[in-house]
Amino acid sequence: MTGSSSALLRVVPFPRQGDVFFDPRPDRALRVSWHAAEGYAVLSLWRDGSCTSTFRLPIAEVPDFVDAMVRGLAGVATQATGSAGSRAG
After folding, report:
1. Is 55 a domain residue?
2. Which tens digit of pLDDT belongs to each residue from 20-31?
3. What is the value of pTM for the model shown?
4. How far apart are CA 51 and CA 62, in angstroms?
């Protein structure tokens, strides 16, 4: 292994503030970790216990990200209640 590739293998401990969300597919997860001192949240994709990619979301953009998720969830809820209402009639 070369010196440059060993930098890619550096493991950072899971921060105290964070969470893990498991994919319905086996052996996949999304890890969210906060790095307030650095000014970002990290979204990392995991497969078979290994991190496959990361995305650094600036903390200033987190509210926009959350709003997008809430709007999406509201749309799903609206579709679900609309479907249930159409079956009831």
Report:
1. yes
2. 999 999 999 999
3. 0.68
4. 22
Model pLDDT for residues 40-86, shown as the tens digit of each residue: 999 999 999 899 999 999 999 999 999 999 999 998 888 777 766 65
For the chain, the distance separating the N- and C-terminal CA atoms, rounded to the nearest angstrom, is 66
- Does 24 map to a domain? yes
Backbone dihedral region for residue 48 (phi beyond 0: left; psi -120 to 50: alpha; all else: beta)? left
Q: Number of structural domains, the chain?
A: 1
Q: Domain range for residue 65?
A: 16-88
What is the average pLDDT score of the chain?
A: 83
Residue among 18, 14, 52, 11 nearest 34 (CA): 18
